[in-house]
């Protein structure tokens, strides 16, 4: 069924001027952008977004990195959106990402890995609601 996922173009990719090329890959893969904004997270908001990782050794670094510069946040729609988007972006660590994936092409490191993609339908809804109010996601 047609459903949705949530993505962020992270500070490394945004700062490098790769947002347009990444968005082109996303659209060419059949995803429709149904909500999108450029914004910048505070360390506190980044910490809240990634709260599930708060016991991980990389959490403090991740919060600093994700608040280090502007990002794009977007809700995407496609059949099988969550799974298909994770295939399009590739593995978390660009060293492990398949050829032709967004992270293989654009990621700088396991942390500065160009894009985020939700890992479940439930988290896609939670994450989309974190950034977009009801009137911003009616498309
Ligand atoms: P993301 O898919 O957004 O979800 C959690 C993020 O934490 C991940 O992408 C990376 O940016 C970061 N991350 C995950 N694992 C590591 C790690 N081992 N070291 C540093 N950062 C990580």
UniProtKB/TrEMBL annotation:
Q: Pfam families per the record?
A: NDK
GO BP annotations, alphabetical order: CTP biosynthetic process; GTP biosynthetic process; UTP biosynthetic process
List keywords of the entry alphabetically.
ATP-binding, Kinase, Magnesium, Metal-binding, Nucleotide metabolism, Nucleotide-binding, Phosphoprotein, Transferase
Q: What class of enzyme is it?
A: transferase
Domain Nucleoside diphosphate kinase-like, first and last residues per copy: 2-139
The domain of life for this entry's organism is Bacteria
Cofactors (names):
Mg(2+)
Q: Which PANTHER family does the record associate with it?
A: NUCLEOSIDE DIPHOSPHATE KINASE (PTHR46161), NUCLEOSIDE DIPHOSPHATE KINASE DDB_G0292928-RELATED (PTHR46161:SF3)
What name has this protein been given in UniProt?
nucleoside-diphosphate kinase
Please name the source species: Belliella buryatensis
